[in-house]
Amino acid sequence: MHTNDPGKTANVRLQAFRAERASWRAVVHLNVVRSIRVILDAMAEAQAYHASTYSSPNTPIRTQAPDLFHAASGAPEAQATAIALAAGRGGPHPQAYPGGSGEVEATQRISGTGSHTDRARALDREIAVNSQFAWKGVFHRMMGRNSSDGEDFNDPDAGWLQDPGHVLHACAEDMITLWNDPTIKALLRAQGIRIEDMPGFFLDSIARVTHPKYVPTDDDILRARLKTLGVSEHRFTIKEGFPGSSSRDLRIYDVGGHRSLRAAWAPFFDDMNAILFLAPLSGFDQVLAEDESVNRLICPTATPSAMQEDSVLLWKSICSNPLLGKTDLILFLNKIDIFRAKLEAGIQFGQYIISYGNRPNDYDNTSAYMRRKFGQIHREYSPQARTFYCHFTTVTDTKSTSAVLIDIQESIMYHNFKSVSLTG
Ligand SMILES: Nc1nc2c(ncn2[C@@H]2O[C@H](COP(=O)(O)OP(=O)(O)OP(=O)(O)O)[C@@H](O)[C@H]2O)c(=O)[nH]1
Ligand SMILES: [Mg+2]
């Protein structure tokens, strides 16, 4: 994160944001398709289990899944949707994150037979955009529109028939029926799948997001999931709240979290005012999409090479990096909303974070434990003493996040003044 003196106006930023909306529409649609595929795959999984269980007369009935599938496949609406959306789909794959296994990415392409190897390959093929390319323009062209004028992005009538969105619009009712089917909900529950906690969840807004005139809101863009590769720069102008006050330019570089790119950026960012580090607390029961042997948040049992990929160890490597020794590190223990929901659903923190043991499985104790853990690493590994800034965040909640950002901005400005001896 980098700040400097006033430059372009906030108005320019706003226009740029508007021009991007239609491109985000395609991302939201990809996210919807992915969520529906998770459901279809769960049905296929139940069907496969049903077939294998009942093909052998000696196999005992152990779970409710076969019966659930039976009921689901008997529902004409559910079947119709499955058929409509199965077009172009290569085949089933294992469940999404059954009791803490791998996370299916929101724009993931899945094909093959559903074997473990197929799935690993599919995970590699998640649709991602490189921040160096004009991906928004590519989406725009894919949608069959000719103008590059930002205002035309907001005219969903143009080229509607060439727009893949019209297929989704035609399937909207079926998708709504499928998602709201109590049997499907029970089937997902039985397989431990919580689509509502996955990134890019829009199934509760299908009618709205598949409408021909749909233009993504700010909130939709925040909730949409698209993997980014490479480093992208975002510039904002922040105006002080009181009349006659000056504005400040804020530059934020997003360096992406994919393991193949981790910390390679460090030497290029040693003059930043601060580094914002987002660790998803909700990932405590998940493995990395890139490597299923590695827990997303902390990996108590993995091999040393695998361990380097989890959030805690990445934090350790950034804290200890001498090039970043003078940079403020601001930690966001993020996705608190999902973290709370998981604890409330009875998922046991101590079962995945072994060092936590049998302590209470409530939000206050578990979150304080993680804060202590990250704080301890910060203290022990920083080349020289520096303040530990830590916030519990749900960054998709703009209201609470803007309060945190104001707080951070003040901390950074205070730090800058301090470094030139303007304040004690
Ligand atoms: N519910 C919830 N979702 C969040 C939160 N923070 C991020 N997300 C969602 O998580 C998804 C991933 O967020 P990103 O910001 O793309 O994650 P990233 O770490 O940049 O991922 P890469 O680009 O692959 O490095 C998006 O769909 C976000 O909307 C949060 O606090 N709560
Ligand atoms: Mg990203």
Q: Could you explain the architecture of this structure?
A:
The protein is mostly helical and 424 residues long. The protein has 16 helices and eight strands. It has helices at 10-55, 65-74, 76-86, 116-124, 135-142, 150-153, 165-180, 182-190, 206-209, 218-223, 304-307, 311-320, 336-344, 349-352, 363-381, 398-419, and strands spanning 2-4, 128-130, 227-229, 232-239, 247-254, 274-280, 328-334, 389-392. The strands form three sheets. Strands 1-5-4 form a three-stranded antiparallel sheet, with no helix packed on it. The chain is globular and about 65 Å long. Residues 3-14, 59-104, 109-124, 144-153 and 300-309 have low confidence and may be disordered. The chain binds guanosine-5'-triphosphate (GTP) and magnesium ion (MG). Residues 199-200, 222-225, 227-228, 256-258, 334-335, 337-338, 394-396 line the site of guanosine-5'-triphosphate (GTP).
Topology, pairings included?
Blueprint: E1 2-4, H1 10-55, H2 65-74, H3 76-86, H4 116-124, E2 128-130, H5 135-142, H6 150-153, H7 165-180, H8 182-190, H9 206-209, H10 218-223, E3 227-229, E4 232-239, E5 247-254, E6 274-280, H11 304-307, H12 311-320, E7 328-334, H13 336-344, H14 349-352, H15 363-381, E8 389-392, H16 398-419
Helix pairs in contact: 1-2, 1-5, 1-7, 2-8, 3-7, 12-15
Guanosine-5'-triphosphate is lined by residues 199-200, 222-225, 227-228, 256-258, 334-335, 337-338, 394-396.
What is this structure, in a nutshell?
By secondary structure, the chain is mainly alpha-helical. It has 16 helices and 8 strands.
